[in-house]
Amino acid sequence: MRKMLAAVSRVLSGVAQKPASRVLVASRNFANDATFEIKKCDLHRLEEGPPVTTVLTREDGLKYYRMMQTVRRMELKADQLYKQKIIRGFCHLCDGQEACCVGLEAGINPTDHLITAYRAHGFTFTRGLSVREILAELTGRRGGCAKGKGGSMHMYAKNFYGGNGIVGAQVPLGAGIALACKYNGKDEVCLTLYGDGAANQGQIFEAYNMAALWKLPCIFICENNRYGMGTSVERAAASTDYYKRGDFIPGLRVDGMDILCVREATKFAAAYCRSGKGPILMELQTYRYHGHSMSDPGVSYRTREEIQEVRSKSDPIMLLKDRMVNSNLASVEELKEIDVEVRKEIEDAAQFATADPEPPLEELGYHIYCNDPPFEVRGANQWIKFKSIS
Ligand SMILES: Cc1ncc(C[n+]2csc(CCOP(=O)(O)OP(=O)(O)O)c2C)c(N)n1
Ligand SMILES: [Mg+2]
Question: What is the C-alpha to C-alpha distance for residues 35 and 24, in angstroms, rounded to an integer?
């Protein structure tokens, strides 16, 4: 009994030391999980699709909320650093599309594989790297995830193959990674992402063909954010039903603004591939708030009203937040606390990304080849000495 009293007193004194809001949060009785209806996917060559209801646990909900908010804040910080000319060169932001990267990750295993195009910051984070390493890569610093030499389009992590700048070129590579999964007899799949603009590329149809012929465990994923580089999908594509464009490959059209929809569709697609049936195609209907890149204000080919409408009616973070609060999975105060923590993490990371030194000039030519001996490539070798012109 004395032991029990001591334990109770320890707990109480611990609570007493915490700020008032934390006590409030801790003392509220939240639901452990809740069931939600989600939008039915449109199907192509499939008898059945993903479920139309799903269970979200409080733990997962909080995790998804934090991850999406981190990606959003990281992108906004990148925008700011770019405008301050601390980040230079290419930079493609994915704010608005957070339910895609976080939802896809929630539907696969860390041992599965993922490859995407140049809008890659969110995926680099969801595949396991820190905001610090990502922002420092953007500012070209030594602590960046590609040692400050890759920049926005060239970030990699375990089972994440970038970050690719040539539109569509990552799609045959993704089919190749899926071939490796099958060849090695692993129960793994490859998520191969591309945009609606890239979907019109010839090499994508070649990859569809080989993947279907060889029954590769490849999930082709078209992030349809309604625009390519300054062009709407209607102006660029003879068919905007991207989920049907694999023809002989079954497809799903998914609400890409709803993380739960993306998660369930991904689980469904991954199970399909793992069962040996071959590739499947998912079209994620999403939206990017920023322009195509930093040089595109993004309002010459779409209206400000359109952007505002998406922001106010189908923002992926707001949607999850509303669901969690309305079903007593979390409180507004608790989510605000997460926002504060996320902002702090981003500020710390930005601090690091501006204070960390650039890689030394003599190392600029390193880390290009995996083999040791130096050899000449177009007049350069990895031991070449660079001189500063400033
Ligand atoms: C082979 C090739 N052609 C053109 C470009 C220039 N380019 C970069 S992104 C882009 C549009 C791609 O749009 P989409 O696939 O919809 O992706 P999003 O930017 O919307 O994510 C173009 C034409 C390029 N990088 N590579
Ligand atoms: Mg696009």
Answer: 25
In 3D space, the residue among 197, 129, 201, 203 whose CA is nearest the CA of residue 160 turns out to be 129
Ligand 1 centroid, distance to 44 Cα (angstroms): 26
Tokens of 351: 């601090």
Residue 168 CA: which ligand 1 atom is closest? 1
Ligand 2 centroid–CA 196 distance in Å is: 5
Dihedral-angle region of residue 379 (phi above 0 means left; psi in -120 to 50 means alpha; beta otherwise):
left
Model confidence over 233-261: pLDDT tens digits?
999 999 999 999 999 999 999 999 999 99
CA 6/CA 276 separation, integer angstroms: 58
Distance (Å, whole) CA 204 – CA 283: 14
CA of residue 213 relative to chain centroid, distance: 29
Return the ligand number nearest the Cα of 195: 1
156-197 pLDDT, tens digit per residue, is 999 999 999 999 999 999 999 999 999 999 999 999 999 999
* 230 burial type by CB count under 10 A (0-12 exposed, 13-18 middle, 19+ buried): middle
Q: In what order do the strands lie in the sheet with 280-285?
A: 42-44, 251-255, 280-285, 218-224, 190-195, 113-115
**Cβ atoms 257, 99 nearer than 8 A:** yes
Task: Name the residue of 229, 232, 283 to mutate for ligand 1: max ligand atoms within 8 A of Cβ.
Answer: 229
Coil, strand or helix at 43 = strand
pLDDT at residue 1, rounded to an integer: 46
Q: What is the pTM of this model?
A: 0.91
CA neighbor of 333 nearest in space, from 26, 18, 35? 26
Structure tokens at 108: 């696969």
Lowest-confidence pick of 37-51, 242-256, 286-300, 353-367:
353-367
For 244, 261, 324, the CA distances from 332, given in Å and listed in that order, are 40, 23, 9
* Cβ of 227 below 6 Å from ligand 1: yes
Q: What's phi and psi for 342, nearest 5 deg? A: -65, -45
